[in-house]
Amino acid sequence: MNETNDPHIIEFSDVTKRFGILTVLDNFNFSVAKGEKVTLIGPSGSGKSTVLRILMTLEPFQEGKLTLAGTSYHEPGGKGPFQASETHLRQIRNHVGMVFQSFNLFPHMTVLRNVVEAPVRVLGMARAEAEARAIKLLQMVGLADKRDHYPVQLSGGQQQRVAIARAMAMRPRVLLFDEPTSALDPQLVGEVLSVIRDLAHEHDLTMLLVTHEMRFAREVSDRVCFFDKGRICEQGAPDEIFGQPKNERTREFLASVLG
Amino acid sequence: MMYGYEWDTTTWLTYTISILPIILIGLTVTLKAAAAGFAIALVLGLVFALLRRSRVKVISWTTAFVVEFLRDTPLLVQLFFLYYVLPNFGIVLPAFLTGALALGLQYAAYTSEVYRGGIEAVGRGQWEAATALNLTRMQTYRDVIIPQAIPRIVPAMGNYLVAMIKETPVLSVITVLEMMGLANMIGERTFEYLVPLTLVGLIFLLLTLICSAGLHRLQKALPKAGIPLR
């Protein structure tokens, strides 16, 4: 991947994304600096998850340009919905990881194997080395003692922590969190947030977080973006957005979620 | 293989005992044909299912057509075609191989639908997680999707295995000397059909009962979440 001096690792320029006749992102512009921790907030259906899914190449977009560390998602003359070859998409995916709302652990594999599988298969790492690294990551999320358990034997919070370790095992430069605590019982949210908080201290890791945990967003983010109807209505430092929101829609939204 | 044998038809018991060795030879042919046919169906069915899910339209449509064709034409026609028509084009296959192949092809069309259902039942989240981890499509099928599909497809596969075993007598029309064909020949020689046909019927019943019981145990033994293939 071409390293440029551009401090922005992610750059959306005039990206338009449609599902059939529904326009989810409309001439969307957004950039993220290397190492930046950005939280996306807003009502459901406002396009924040779509931004993450496009970055992870789970969804194609129709118009505009998106680059990751200087590499465009679309290839010149690229075919198919993604306008790029599978090889090209895999190069992009090499740098991006994702944590899902519903964890999506592999239920037929032990915790350890969930974390080891991709580094061995995709990065070609030796199994012993991958396991040693996986155990370190599981220690980081506080679950090294569960290495031989199956996902179904874990609580939701524990599963999500394993999912974070699994994503980190691929050494992503950009890590995406798509509502990582929304599917959890309230008493399990804290343990997952504390793991994400630890990751937020990693200087080089760029993080994009879609969440409804406003207090947490305020605490860990460098920047908060408020989404409405496929656009960013307002963005800025957490204290600005939560302290003195300028936009009427932002105020309404924050009033409704903060109660 | 029948000539030179004399059968004692004085009582049903002596008759049964005297034809049993020949029927058992037929049984081994039946079992071999069913095993070979089912092995072909299991492998080829998966190939059909994956090709049908290909993103290349020409491949998925062609596969869909082939599968429909195999499903919607009688096994007997396929059997005659392979055995009597292919030689016109210079392809001569031994009777047993033809029989196993015909069974395998037709049941591959059925099992491909079972695979397809099992694969589609694995949630989209699993595909997305595999994509996020940068697994290739092949790796995703092999390491993530198919292992989870296996417990879901075992019951339906078992039904097809039983159905296939029961369909092996059709092979006698292309001169494969399996159990039923032999029983029929014995009847023609002795004009006593009751004993050989009853015997064959009972052996089939026993076979399918054993199969069902085995499948039931297999189903219970398989972890519900799936089994890693490697």
From TrEMBL, chain A:
PROSITE patterns: ABC_TRANSPORTER_1 (PS00211), ABC_TRANSPORTER_2 (PS50893). It is a peripheral membrane protein. GO terms for molecular function: ATP binding. It holds the Pfam family ABC_tran. Residues 10-254 form the ABC transporter domain. It is found in: Cell membrane. SUPFAM superfamilies: P-loop containing nucleoside triphosphate hydrolases. Its main location: membrane. It comes from the Bacteria. Keywords: Amino-acid transport, ATP-binding, Cell membrane, Membrane, Nucleotide-binding, Transport. PANTHER family: AMINO ACID IMPORT ATP-BINDING PROTEIN (PTHR43166), GLUTAMATE_ASPARTATE IMPORT ATP-BINDING PROTEIN GLTL (PTHR43166:SF9). This is Polar amino acid transport system ATP-binding protein. It comes from Pseudorhizobium tarimense.
From TrEMBL, chain B:
Keywords: Amino-acid transport, Cell membrane, Membrane, Transmembrane, Transmembrane helix, Transport. Gene3D superfamilies: MetI-like. It holds the Pfam family BPD_transp_1. It comes from the Bacteria. It is found in: Cell inner membrane; Cell membrane. Its main location: membrane. Residues 27-215 form the ABC transmembrane type-1 domain. InterPro entries: AA_ABC_transptr_permease_3TM, ArtM/GltK/GlnP/TcyL/YhdX-like, Ectoine_EhuD, MetI-like, MetI-like_sf. It is a multi-pass membrane protein. Coiled coil: none annotated. The chain crosses the membrane at residues 12-29, 35-51, 91-110, 193-215. PROSITE patterns: ABC_TM1. The keyword Membrane applies. Belongs to the binding-protein-dependent transport system permease family. HisMQ subfamily. This is Polar amino acid transport system permease protein. It comes from Pseudorhizobium tarimense.
